[in-house]
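User: Okay, second chain of the day. Same drill as before: sequence in, structure tokens out.
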Amino acid sequence: MESRQRQGQSRRPAAGRVLLPSLLLCWCCRAAPERLHYAIPEELDRGSLVGPLARDLGLSPEELPERKLRLSAAKQYFTVSGENGNLYVSERLDREEMCGESASCSVSFEALVHNPLNVFHVDVAIQDVNDNSPRFPQDSFHLEINELTSVGARFVLGMAEDADVGSNSLQGYELEANEYFAVEVKESPDGSKFAELVLLRALDREREQSLRLVLTAVDGGDPPRSGTAQLCINVTDINDNAPVFAQERYRVSVREDALPGSTVVNVSASDADAGINARITYGFGKMPPKVLQKFMVDAESGRITLQEALDFDDTRGYTLLVEARDGGGLVAHCKVEVEVLDVNDNTPEITVLSVSSPVPEDAPAGTVVALLNVKDPDSGENGQVWCELSGEAPLSLVASSGGSYKVVTASALDREQKSEHRVTVVARDRGSPALSSSTVLVLEVSDVNDNAPVFEEAAYSAYVAENNAAGALVLHVRARDADAGSNGRVRYSMEGGSAGAAPYVSVEAQSGAMYAQRSFDYEQCREFAVVVRAQDGGEPARSSTATVRVFVLDRNDNAPRVLWPAAAGAGADAGLAAGPSPFEMVPRSAEAGYLVAKVVAVDADAGRNAWLSYELVQVTEPALFRVGLHSGEVRTARAVSDRDAAKQRLVAVVKDHGQPALSATATLHVVLAESLQEALPELSERSAGADSAAELQFSLVLALALLSALFLLSVALAVLARGRRSGQPAVLRCLGAQRFSVAGAAFPADFCEGTLPYSYNLCAAPGRSVAEGAWPPLPVPSLPAEELLCGEPCAERSLTSIDGAGKLPAEPNAPQRRPGPEASAAGGGEGAGTVVGGGELSAAEMGAAERRWSLRKRALLWGVLMAALDAAWGQLHYSVPEELPKGSFVGDVAKDLGLEMLALRDRGVRVVSEGRTKYFALHGKTGHLVTAERIDREQLCESVRQCVLRCEVILDGEMQVYSVEVEITDINDNAPKFEEMELEERMSESTAPGSRFPLVEAHDPDAGPNSLQRYELSGDEHFSLAVQAGPGGDHRPELVLEKALDREEAAFHELVLRARDGGEPAQTGTARIRVTVLDANDNAPVFSQEEYTARVAEDVPVGSVLVTITASDADEGLNGNVKYSLKKITAKASRVFELDAETGALTLVRPLDFEEGDSYELQVQARDGGELFDAAKIVITVTDVNDNAPEISVRSALTEISEDAQAGTVVALLHVQDRDSGANGQVRCSLDEGVPFRLRSSQGSYYSVVTAGELDREKVSEYNLTVRAVDGGSPAMQSSAVLALRVLDVNDNAPVFAEPRYSARLAENNAAGALVLTVRATDADWGQNARVRYRLSEGRVRGAPLSSYVSVQAETGALYALRSFDYEEVREVRLWVWAEDGGLPALSSNASVVLEIVDENDNAPQVLYPPAAAPSAAVSGWAGVELAPRSAEPGALVAKVVAVDADAGQNAWLSYELAKATEPGLFRVGLHSGEVRTARFPLARDAARQSLVVVVKDHGRPALSATATLTVVLAESVAELLSELGSAAAAVPGEPAASLTRWLVLAVAAVSCLFLAFLLLLLAFRLRHWRRSQLLATSGSASSRRVPASQFVGIDGVRAFLHSYSHEVSLTADSRKSHLRLSSGSCCDTLPARPPPDEPAPLLGQDVADSRCSDLAAPTQAQPNTDWRFSQTQRPGTSGSQNGEEGGAWPNNQFDTEMLQAMILASANEAADGNSTLGGGTGTMGLSARYGPQFTLQHVPDYRQNVYIPGSTATLTNAAGKRDAKNAGASGGNKKKSGKKEKK
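Assistant: Same drill. Structure tokens below.
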């Protein structure tokens, strides 16, 4: 506090002393007013006076407000008073902070004066005061000095820094008093002072280990200031003591399950030295790599840890050699003996020696199936093992000697229950905890044929729709056999069934697929049953059967048949008199619902296909009659009136409900008469007028329908023929799209005679590899199909032999098979045979039998031998030396086991060794055990005293194992060997004599006396050898120093160490030892120069090496390794330079800047590894380059100027300077051209920017003035500054419209407020001067103010319509729009606007003539009546329609059309004139009164219209006109019959032409095809060349033989044979015609099919619901009729649909028995009384065989059975054919 007061008191006199010279200086400077100089001391208070600036500038206090005196500087250290103009201090001034180490310090700035603008330079010098104490760069200095350092040695200390200058700077150093060191002040060439520490007395580390002294730096101020630093000196020691272990030998036990990373033992050693010499690091000596992999030693703590897991079975103990090395290179050794303790860590090992798999399932209990061997590598109880079986299996484990086990069967096996047994063998040892292992034995059970095939279902049911394709799949039967392989391979065959069912289906032998052999007919056969047999492939074979019942489903293939009314004769359509057509008579007094007749029809189908419905399709009077939908009853729909025609014709359609539905028609004639006498005239006469037109129309409709149907049928047939031609040949399509022919078909050899009795239909399914066939016995020899088609003569062919049984010869390449059950099954049918290969037992089969007997004999022999071996079971022991050659004798195993050589060969004896290498083998001839590989005891048993190899002798035949142990004895085959042949030891020359250094031990793999025995050393007198005996008897060599070392005398010593074993002869191993003598640090580094200088340019790149310093040290190694460092350096220099500690290169790390510093001085130091050092200085001089661009500072500038400013106005004041010196700092300034400004130079380096002309904001509203400054360097550098100047606007421009005149179009009827258009005016001014507003000038439209029609939006100029315009009232509006800006005064302009109203179509045409008639006029008929004479010619004017439209333009264009007329072709109207004229001559048939409706339309969008009605009367005079208008009857409008007839004729003609064109086109295609076939026929194949043409029939290009027997061949997937079945009744004279595409060709003859289907009708029908009853409405005749329409719904099941059939048959039975309840005579079913004598039972077919009575088990029988049987026998075939035709 006192010092501060003293300092303040000293400052005040100093301020006084400085103020007077300052005033004198200011007074002298008035002669040069542009630059003022002041001087003040630093650290003045804020607000201290610097000088009277305003007075020195010649400014009075009154001028200050106007002249605006202010300062311009980057940092405002000073401020000027606005009242008196004095200059004051505004910030704290610190000379050291502002000017650093510079001797002089001043602050320069400018004083600006406005009005006019002027600049003055001011310099203020800052004087130094002693306000900074000296300061060391660090608070403490640490030195390490070796105790051997010589007296007088110097150590450079850090240099203190003092920010003050002159006498206030650093002057000297002082050191705290002590007896060892003193300080001396040294001065560098630049005048700086640094301290050197001088050693006055030798150091002794044992006496003083460290010293702490205070170093003081003192400056020369008044009072002086000082700074201190702590000096810490550590005395370093020399390495004169070696490390010593706490124990020479460590013993430790480790469990083998110790985890890696566990600590084994901690070794420790101590060193009497200090520092780095006492720092001990631990490591392993020379040891085998195997040991180094197991253990790891921590270099710092000496802790030995486990690196890998131990294994007691591998190695039971380890010896570790541990080294302790200090920092000076001295080493001590010790040994660590590690004993490995055994733990139970090995699981038992299970070896499967032999497995017998598979085992037949009939093997007896006790059969040996596997032989195992179990071992555990552990010892003691840990190695004792016991085994067991895990898992449910009929197996057991039997123990044998030597760790062997047998796996035998415990009970009988069954493959079907389990085909594979997986059993787990578990082996556990007796350790704690016990360990176990397991292995899985997989035992396969082979199959025996003990199971028969079993069908999935005992009975199968299949449903097949009738009319199926031949070869269609019916169903799959599937049988499974539990056996495997061939025993489980199932084949299928047919074995009978219901009578005659066999020819219907066939079964595929491999898959069990059943195929239909023919097309089924539900009406003939509804169900049948067959038996299928499944047989396996075992020996003997087993089989089973299943019943398959096939149900045939009905399809709608029968159209309904009308029973009554019967179809009329050919002349019935012409009239009733032409034939006996039935008719009904209805009295004219009949009421609605009167029963006229009943249509009776039946359908041969069943179920829904037989449900019938009735409809009337053609009636003379449509509304007079109706027919019951389900009953067929025809009744009157209304009462009969007098105007109804007497004769009525009704056509009824009967439809079934199948898909698609089939139908039939019935024609009924009805006569309206009260009695028969009244009906007779009607029957004999016809109305020619109406009937002729109706008949003509009906004929045309019928012709049109027939032509259309014929045309469609022709097109369908052509498409079908085209499709069949493009597919496969028709002869290969017997069973579907995937059929194909195979080679090998046989034909008779005498086919040339034209009586070939065989042809065949071959059916094949995909995936066939070999065909299978079942051939019938052939009456004549057969030839292959290839020979038949080759075209060669018959005489050149030899007949193929056929045995008497009708068997065909087998193919040469087909496999020969013995007859099996399937062969006998296949041949069970009539006329069927099987192609098989015969022969007796082959030689191969006999050899197989002999081998089976030989195996049985061997099994018996092995049983006897196994019994003998069980009595002599034991273990064999042998001993052999190592290194025996391969094949050397070991022992006589055969003799020791008591085995004979013959038995030895037969039993399959083999030797199994442990591990991968097989060392022993069994000699096959002698039975001796011999060596199979070279045996090396050291490799096998490296650390084991007794080396024993084990193997097993296995007898495969008896499943026996014998253990063999062979002991390997040692021989002296290895010499002692050092791990390293070259050893190196490092010793300091100060090592004391008597020191011991352990050496690496030699290793000898041999054992006993052959192992290592002694060591020997040869070399010089400095060393000797000492051998220490270990507790285990091992020898440990040590090197002993006998004489002190001297590195200057000898730097290296070479020694030889020898190791000898005790073998005969002895073997020796040698190692060379190289002892390196380490040097002591007794020389300090020396620089090559005391001062290094460098001169560099300031633009030198970063990373450049400026100078490289070098220092040398006479020592070597660590003591001679010199490190470089910077000791004295400023903070600024430390950021610029970097010194490499290794090379001494001084590198630039940051760019140099001449302007910041032109020279640098650095203090460097070189220090060796022993802490001895030397110092030097580096001086760096920086030269200037042109690297600074000129700097432009804008001192004052305007941002806005009015566009009417005068020329010469100053807009900116600039200051330009360049930091470079010389020519590099000379600057030239310029301004861009083309701007109304110029640059004017002011005093010093100031420039003014002034206006050079007038400004116009509308042209340029803003200027960016670029001022460029270029210096005089090479190359020159430049910089620029941009001045942004905005020109202010003046209102000197009026608004201008975009267009002088505007026009707009507005559609009438617009919405109020609709936008008309937008006017836009722009003003070149800116801001408020450019803001435009719009208004309308006053005006009137149709007397109303203009403002009531339109308005303008003041801001946007948008014109809006204020009301809806009407084109008919206002068509154009003219107005003026004014635009006015917002300036003062305001400027304005105007524009004219023309608004045109556009017309819209909003008025419909108005008809002036004919006038619209009143309602009363319409009744009277006088409205718009015109007279047209009947003699008028075409084009005669009748009337003119006159209309007008209020719209304009296209909306008023009118057109006229005739919309409606009584006679359309009689009149026409002019399109634009509206004149109504005649289009043709009036005819007599034209109605006298014509009504015309004319539509008048305009052409608007959308168009509007009006109608005018005009009545035209065809009359010659007014009297006729009046009579026509007065008549009350009006003609009923409707289409004349002639129009319908005309359209029908046109339709018939069009269809006929189309059909004729199609026929011509088809004929052209056929002629083209025929022409092409004629061309191909000339080059045809030889297949038909030599066969007479009469023997062939062509179908679609495929040729077939004329006479043939029909075979059926079925080929299915995966078949090895071809089945071919011959039908006995299938022979015919000619080939049957190809069936239609929708009906497959039958495979059997028609008669045969009829005879067989009669037997298949036996199965009974299932019982229906017993609640079924007949309803009265469903009975024919009068008893079933009733008034009114039926109300029930159509039946919905099959039983209800057959009611009508059952009823008709029941009625027929009653009629035959004479007990009919339906009325009528015999044989008429009671219908003759109602429907006349024409209806008899001949019209009703006998459907009793297809009908049953639901609810009853009785079967309908025919009373007239004899008659029916005769009729059926006489015409059965014809009926069948007719039935087929009806189907088609």
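The longest helix spans residues 1537-1577.

User: Thanks, on to the next one.
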